[in-house]
Write a structure and sequence with these properties.
By secondary structure, chain A is mostly helical. The first copy, chain A, is built from four helices and no strands. At the A-B interface, helix 4 of A face helix 4 of B. Chain A binds a DNA duplex (30 and 30 nucleotides) through helix 3 and helix 4.
DNA sequence: AAAATATTATAACACTTTCTATAAAAAATG
DNA sequence: CATTTTTTATAGAAAGTGTTATAATATTTT
């Protein structure tokens, strides 16, 4: 499961809009949208923020 | 107190090298160095990370 | 003090993020 | 169903970031 898929997976699981998730992670809507559509990979800090968010929500990817 | 000054202030108060602080904040050494030398301002996420770090360390800037 | 090591300053390049705007698609409302 | 509203997709430009490298400065060690 690549990063872009993880983002969409988590977002839909939590029923958040791209705007909502952007706000949760303190990034812009454009960033979330580009992550999901594969244009870019996250920065070091952004990846950490996303991972921390997932951990908070008890979302695990290992078995997917 | 502008951002560049805050970074240096916090870093020296905690006796951290630029490299150390970079590691704490999950950004690169170059980013910390640029922040301190005023070349750039932090991204939205980076600013939050820095503020969170300062809060963790109980560092307040209001009265400086 | 001299040499070695660590820290800081600076820069180029590619990539990422933000901001802003526009259009398409989906969902909600009447 | 038609209209309105929300969400998503996309993109250009400007700014920020990571990587890498080099040089200058400061600190430590011998």
């Amino acid at each position: 499961m690549v990063f872009s898929e993880k983002v969409k997976y988590v977002r839909e699981k939590l029923k958040l809009s791209q705007e909502d998730l952007a706000h949760e992670l303190d990034v812009s809507f454009a960033t979330i949208n580009r992550w999901e559509n594969g244009s870019y990979n996250p920065s070091r800090l952004a990846r950490k923020a996303f991972e921390g968010f997932c951990a908070d929500k008890n979302i695990i990817f290992e078995e997917i």
